[in-house]
């Protein structure tokens, strides 16, 4: 009886300790802030097809072609964002993954374009080596690599299939996360979801389909899925929601393993998703770099109460990592609409409540189980005693009330970088009527990084 009682008490303490660890909020102080203006448009390469010289030609609700520049207003729900499509050139927007480099620069990437496969056939996929001038608050692209598939590694026809230069577009892949390595770049994407490998010139070399427990992981945008000809037959089975693929991709410190983190949970059946600790949980799936094969190991990342997706993922050491977790809200709650089902132009449909960076632990012992969430920093309540912010926040604080915050990595022993994906020209979370800029912040979080 005593042993049973002791075990029960120990279990309760363990559960309480886990809950308290996840709920532990660590302080964060704004050290520097840099802004890349939303309307940053760059020209397509000179050898790109004429079709790619402009972008956003299919962004109306009915996807009808619109060639006249600047005639389709960008909207966040019912709110105008002040920018209009199509663009003359390619938007640099959509930073969706970041990696700090030893020389002080960062590698990032622009995601699929305008948020969907069908409206992004004329957006080009690209990687950026960026330099941030923290003192003056400016972001500069030192190098942009446009991704290509000259060797026809994509196992399906691409948009530029018959073009002289086979540039990849946002209708081919939805690239969302990046890991630079000596011979190129590993990229996580959402349509497959696939793990992709590119060489240093941006040439596609590998497309790795995803499996968990020897079963394929498929999104509705997977190019291998086809609709039934007979409407009485069931639709093809898929087990990840649209935009539920690899939002995060981390690399082990020895470079031998990649860890792909899905943005959405795997569906067990038509009514339920995978869970851990009583919460919907996202898979972290391990890939062996040398063999380019899945090892069979994975972990479960349980979402916090109110959390709906992750934004980025990078390892700190062999067992701990940083993960951005967020809800789908945008803007501040004090300016949220009274009824989210009746959004209006003068209020945010649903305000931001969960915008966090978690520190997690994933070990051999908890493989196949839930990661340990060690605590988080609140991106809606960042201390700014020295008034380092360039926009947003308020007296003594800075905030990031963006729907998508998709960049995080450690910069040094006490600082991390965090940045948003502005979904140009559709997201307006900083202001009611203005498209979000790309904002990058340097945060002092020594206690958080040293948490055990």
CATH level-two architecture: 6 Propeller
Structural class: mainly beta
Radius of gyration: 22 Å
> Counting H and I runs of at least 4 residues, what is the number of helices?
2
Mean pLDDT reading: 94
> Distance N terminus to C terminus?
34 Å
Major pleated sheet: 5 strands, antiparallel
Report the sheet-strand fraction.
Answer: 35-45%
Q: Please tell me what the overall shape is.
A: globular
Low-confidence stretches are 1-20
At the first level of CATH, the class is: Mainly Beta
Helix content: under 10%
Task: Tally the structural domains.
Answer: 1
Total beta-strand segments: 29
What multimeric state do the chains show? single chain
Q: What is the CATH T-level topology?
A: Neuraminidase
Descriptive account of the structure:
This protein is mainly beta and 452 residues long. It has a single domain (26-226, 234-449), classed as 6 Propeller (Neuraminidase), CATH 2.120.10. It has helices spanning 2-23, 446-449; strands at 29-36, 41-42, 72-76, 79-85, 90-91, 95-100, 106-110, 126-133, 138-146, 175-181, 184-189, 194-199, 204-209, 211-212, 215-216, 246-251, 257-262, 275-276, 279-288, 293-302, 309-315, 320-326, 355-361, 372-378, 382-383, 397-398, 405-410, 415-420, 438-444. A hairpin with a 4-residue loop joins strand 12 and strand 13 (204-209). It starts with a helix and ends with a helix.
What characteristics describe this protein?
5-stranded antiparallel sheet; single chain; 2 helices; mainly beta; 452 residues; disordered N terminus; Neuraminidase
């Amino acid at each position: 009886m005593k042993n049973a009682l002791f075990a029960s008490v120990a279990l309760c303490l363990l559960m309480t300790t886990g809950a308290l660890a996840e709920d532990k909020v660590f302080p964060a102080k704004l050290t520097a802030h840099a802004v890349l203006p939303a309307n940053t448009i760059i020209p397509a390469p000179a050898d790109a097809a004429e079709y790619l010289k402009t972008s956003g030609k299919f962004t109306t609700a009915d996807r009808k072609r619109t060639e006249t520049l600047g005639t389709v207003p960008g909207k966040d729900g019912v709110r105008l964002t002040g920018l209009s499509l199509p663009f003359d050139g390619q938007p640099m927007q959509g930073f969706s993954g970041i990696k700090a480099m030893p020389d002080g620069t960062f590698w990032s990437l622009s995601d699929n374009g305008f948020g969907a496969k069908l409206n992004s056939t004329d957006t080009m996929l690209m990687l950026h080596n960026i330099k941030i001038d923290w003192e003056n608050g400016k972001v500069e692209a030192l190098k942009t690599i446009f991704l290509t598939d000259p060797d026809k590694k994509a196992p399906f026809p691409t948009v530029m299939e018959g073009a002289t230069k086979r540039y990849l577009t946002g209708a081919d892949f939805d690239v969302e996360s990046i890991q630079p390595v000596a011979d190129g770049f590993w990229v996580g994407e959402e349509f497959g979801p696939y793990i992709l490998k590119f060489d240093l010139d941006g040439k596609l070399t590998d497309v790795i389909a995803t499996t968990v427990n020897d079963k394929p992981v498929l999104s509705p945008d997977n190019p291998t899925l086809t609709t039934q000809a007979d409407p009485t037959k069931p639709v093809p089975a898929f087990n990840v929601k649209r935009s539920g693929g690899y939002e995060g991709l981390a690399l082990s410190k020895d470079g031998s393993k990649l860890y792909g983190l899905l943005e959405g949970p795997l569906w067990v059946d038509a009514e339920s998703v995978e869970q851990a600790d009583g919460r919907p949980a996202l898979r972290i799936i391990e890939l062996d770099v040398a063999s380019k094969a899945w090892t069979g190991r994975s972990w479960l990342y349980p979402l916090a109460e109110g959390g709906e997706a992750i934004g980025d993922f990078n390892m700190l050491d062999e067992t701990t990592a940083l993960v951005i977790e967020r809800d789908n809200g945008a803007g501040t709650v004090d300016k949220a609409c009274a009824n989210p089902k009746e959004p209006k132009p003068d209020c945010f449909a649903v305000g931001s409540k969960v915008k966090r960076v978690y520190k997690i632990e994933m070990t051999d012992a908890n493989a196949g189980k839930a990661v340990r969430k060690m605590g988080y920093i609140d991106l809606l309540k960042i201390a700014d005693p020295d008034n380092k912010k360039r926009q947003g926040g308020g007296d003594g604080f800075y905030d990031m009330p963006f729907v998508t915050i998709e960049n995080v990595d450690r910069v040094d022993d006490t600082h991390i970088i965090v940045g948003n994906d502005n979904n140009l020209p559709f997201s307006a979370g900083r202001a009611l009527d203005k498209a979000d800029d790309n904002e990058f912040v340097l945060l002092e979080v020594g206690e958080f990084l040293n948490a055990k």
